Amino acid sequence: MPRITRTETNGTEETRADKARTAKAPRALPLAATVLTGTVALYIALVAFGNITDFDTNRQYVRHVLAMDTTFHDPELMWRAITSHTVQDAAYLAIIAWEAVAATVLVVATVLGVLGLRRGDFSAARRMATAGLLMMLVLFGAGFLAIGGEWFAMWQSKAWNGLEAATRNFVFAGIALIVVHLPGAEGRHGDGQR
Hints:
By secondary structure, the protein is mainly alpha-helical. The protein has helices spanning 16-53, 55-67, 85-119, 123-151, 163-180; strands spanning 6-9, 12-15.
């Protein structure tokens, strides 16, 4: 059990244990935010790497989703289908580029987070992590869930339905973004406040 001694600080009593807890507490949230950001960075970097090195697998996925060829073929929806391989491949390349940029931004945010833990100022890492995590939310929320899932009716396909994976990725990035923005996560000047 730690030895408790009382000291006067600005007219209030504070124990050494209280001081130790206060000194360590602000580092916990920036550490958690940095680890989560790094985990998301690793994930999206591996996704981008996989799409680049195994280009054809997910190209087929994008082509089938955009062509809507495994949906219910409802005439009211089929006008939305994109069957041009050129346009489909351009969309796929745009997705890969978006993933690569998001991965780069999140890797930089992770490095800034590690440096911020040493300096006691997580604000630069927080801004960069926010940008990268928002890129993830746009990709998986707007791109896969909204456009792929609803506009191109991906939910109707048994073979080419990526909604579960997109939801998992959206939630993963969303949780990381929440942790990055929890009060005290900025860790500025050792007090956890801005």
